[in-house]
Amino acid sequence: MASETIVDPDFKVPAPERVGEEGKTWSHVIQNLVFTVDHKKLGLMYIGSGLLFFVVAGIMATLIRVQLFFPRSTFLDPDVFNRFFTMHGTAMVFLVGMPMIFGFANYLIPIMIGTRDMAYPRLNAFGFWVFFFSGLLLYFSYFGAPGLYNAGSAPDVGWFAYSPLTAKAFSRGHSTDYWTLSILLGGIGSLATSINILVTTFCLRCKGMTLGRMPLFVWLFVVVAFLVIIALPPLSACQIMLTLDRYLGAKFFDTQAGGDAVLWQHFFWIFGHPEVYILILPGFAIANEIIPVFSRKPIFGYPIMVAATVMIAFISLGVWAHHMFTVGMTSLGNTFFAISTMVIAVPTGIKIFNWLGTMWGGKLHFELPMIFCLAFLFQFLIAGLTGVMLSVVPFDWQLSDSYFVVAHFHYVLIGALLYTLFAGIYYWYPKAFGRMPNRKLGLWHFWLFTIGFHLTFFPQHISGFLGMPRRIFTYEAGRGWEIWNQLSTIGVIIQIPGILFFVFNLIYSYFKGEEAGDDPWDAWTLEWATTSPPPEYNFEKTPEVRSRRPLWDLKHPDDPDWKFE
User: Fold this and answer.
1) What radius of gyration do the chain's Cα atoms show?
2) Which of these, 113, 194, 335, 403, could form a disulfide with 225 (CB 3.0-4.6 Å)?
3) Which residues are listed as membrane-spanning (predicted)?
4) pTM for the structure as a whole
């Protein structure tokens, strides 16, 4: 059988050396990571960097919530609050979400399609280091931003940097310039990685792996890569225009000189809303791999899942102005973007029903990855329902820039994306390190983080209905907002030990975890045909596949999938 060429059963790869073993020092490890072009190491470096920035952004979020615990709190000055608010949002989108999804893509796509590396290994390394130093540049603004005016520190214009807040008159010093250059550099790294993903997928698939046999994980990242290439140039363009405004007097966004401040919003959200799907589609990709394995059933409706993904990507390019219903667009414009926002819920709903169809009648195994995926389904459903509510223009007029919107997008980016990232880390941790994550620690992580998450963000729907605006650093007593802010802050405090359990689990399992073996989950895709961790070259022999589940064919020669495809 062709699938027998996946791996030579007599071939054994030595266990990876670990820090502390003879001849293996931290300096050796660091040197190896700095100069590596191995897609697996770069993938882990992306994920590790994203987790590091996540911790920093989480500390800022905690301080923001502490400030809002009491009315008229003076825990943070308004300027400091605005800087934390800006840095938290920027970091979570550009330094946590983006690198972590690219980390999974880098590590898994070559192994899933049966090749030995990305198409352009050096470009891959370039993309990582550009991203990493763009993040350092953003945080360096704390030290280098005062400039000639001795004004400011970190940027304080919001992660969306609306004009005219970014004009020299309102943002002195260089903090906004650090923000602009950081985003611009990060975009270059993202474009490089996206091009690499496309070339790798279309040119380096193993024998027999047609587009119709690719794992859905790979399909979704192909769509994400196209979205990045389409959506990022407008963001880069407006960063350049802003720099020209600030230093050469170009006046693109200066309304007093004939410019248009709303033009910035269009440029930013033409990127910004596809960015939501750039972030969430990889979460869907992870769920597509985990739910079938722990349901012991193939994914329900593979072709429909691919079609729904393409539909989501296409429609996402035409919904950006639902962020702008209150800026004074025409009725025709509001109507178009309201309808497109409602329509995009259709292919997304198809995906949810397909995941439910996969689980229906299956033999569910409630391992850590599956538990996080089940929470993701519930939380993303809430996010989707509130998103459709906000697509109704009169409803949006009432709640725009309120905490209802804050709750909505945190249910998307935390309740959906972050939960699938946790699921993916627990699922592929045995493959990356050869050790099983600790289940008890993982359950503590799940329950503490989930209880804290809902306690933090669900009350914000209510405070939004009660009229609490976003982005304010304090508020007056007697408005009915106190209890909801206090519940939100308590929720954040509950999430903190959950994250500590997660970090401790990663470290503890690396050194003390149970040995995993090559395929601990009894999975079906090619990455589980290699050793754990995989060798640098992934496969001794080039794999050959005949179905969407090559390992099923190998394990069940009497009942292979290829007979029915």
Assistant:
1) 24
2) 194
3) 50-70, 90-113, 125-145, 178-204, 216-242, 262-287, 299-323, 335-356, 368-389, 409-429, 441-463, 483-508
4) 0.93
